[in-house]
Amino acid sequence: MIYHYQWLIFFKCCETQQINKAKMRFVQPWPLIPIILVCLGGIHSTEDGELVQDDPHRDPSLCEVCKYLTTELKGRLDETGKTHDVIETGYGLDQKKKKKEYKKTELRLIEALNDPHVCEKILEYNIHAERKGSLRFAKGRSQTMETLRNLVDKGVNVELGIPYDLWDTPSAGVTEMHRKCFKIVEDFEESIEEWYWNHQDEDLTTYLCINQVLRKDDQECLSETWKGEKERDKERKKITKPKKENGNRKGDMGQYDAEKIEREEL
Q1: Handedness of CA 193, 195, 199, 203 (dihedral sign)
Q2: What are the extents of the domains in the chain?
Q3: Residues 6 or more apart from 214 whose CB is under 8 A from it?
Q4: Which end of the chain is less congested by CB atoms within 10 angstroms, N or C?
Q5: From the CB of residue 157, how many other CB atoms can be counted at a distance below 10 Å?
Q6: 4 close to 25: Cβ distance less than 8 angstroms
């Protein structure tokens, strides 16, 4: 027997600020319940319609933008810092060229910032509506979109109002973070250069975000860290782990309750 259900689900609410209607045909309802809960769980608004603080699709804060900018820049510098390449500088055929380690050159910083621009890495992020705070921005597909694609692979007709090949396009929140990232680099380029030449012993996020870009009341997101799926599952098991029953034992030495056993045998 085939069950016909037509659902109006806020699937794309987990990826963009626009809510598109999604129709799913010939699907029984229970596989959709986790998706509905994830999507609706992040939608909260005030009486005047403004999005509240825990809405996953609110605009990225300056703290979040600076956090992921420095994360990406540190990642690039870490990669190039491992090389032992030597750069030769000098002009003319007869002039003796100077040799300098690549990791100590201005070229390394220029390439880390602009080849391609470090802010382009922001477009690799997606909004994971099931996560809180700044952790909602992460690379890879969200649980919702992964579930939807799995349904499509199984032959389910899923309509989000946009072509299938555009499902992975950056959301409005990610493109806004991308734009703000360029603004920070432009406004604080000299500070980044100062850190590179004279303060690399200090963490870049601390030097740039905490000390220069952000107000003291807008730094909370910097302490938010993702523990990973395994760690989260481990914490859940600790919380929900049932107490072991001791059967028919009693006392500190675990002696059997003979009277109870006798009653059961009777």
Answers
A1: negative
A2: 12-225
A3: 62, 63, 66
A4: N
A5: 11
A6: yes
Partners of residue 86 on adjacent β-strands: 101
Strand partners, 249: 256
Name the pTM for this structure: 0.65
Residue 101: what pLDDT? 82
What angle (nearest 5°) sits at the alpha carbon of residue 222, between those of residues 220 and 224?
Answer: 85
Helix, strand, or coil (residue 255): strand
SS3 86: strand
Q: How far apart are CA 50 and CA 45, in angstroms?
A: 5
Model confidence pLDDT, tens digit, residues 116-168: 999 999 999 999 988 889 999 999 887 888 888 888 888 888 887 878 878 88
Q: For residue 169, what pLDDT band results from cuts at 50, 70 and 90?
A: confident
Alpha helical stretches, state H, the chain? 33-41, 62-80, 106-114, 143-153, 172-187, 189-198, 204, 228-240, 258-265
Task: Tell me which H or E stretch contains 137.
Answer: strand 137-139
Rounded distance between C-alpha atoms, residue 154 and residue 157, angstroms = 9
